[in-house]
Amino acid sequence: MATVYIGIGSNLGDRHIFIEDSLLRLERDVGNIVTRSTVIETEPWGFDSADSFLNMVTKVETLLSPRGLLECLLKIESDMGRIRSEPGYRSRVIDLDILFYDDLIIDSGDLAIPHPLLHRRLFVLQPMSEIAPDLVHPVLNKSISELLCELEGC
What we know:
- The protein contains four helices and seven strands, in the order βαβββαβββαα.
- The protein is an alpha+beta fold.
- The chain has a single domain, classed as 2-Layer Sandwich (Alpha-Beta Plaits), CATH 3.30.70.560.
- Strands 1, 2, 3, 4 and 5 form a five-stranded antiparallel beta sheet that branches. A two-stranded antiparallel sheet has the order 6-7.
- It starts with a strand and ends with a helix.
């Protein structure tokens, strides 16, 4: 059984419903949700939009392989109405990102674990620090708390 952390975000439609629906689908298709952070509201990152995001992180135990997990998350996003038509960041009904998969380090083009930008994103580090402050990033060798402190300028 692998322990994975998944970032969840939504900035279109009924964001709360999309977040809750994604959690139900994760429980059904990915594995047991061990814990989840509170939901925070944040500004878009990497693009301009009048629609703010709701973001959270959940810890899940899964039997899926890293590739299987990615495929499952992409299917959930698609089934919920996310359209991936052009490269780059844009508004979306749901966004599911693999943040960590145990302590694996993978970089195979379309699959990068840990998520390569998580250490630069408050909307990931803040909820992550709520549920796993002592988790150590296997590439940067710093805890989530340390990464958050660095980003906030402690």
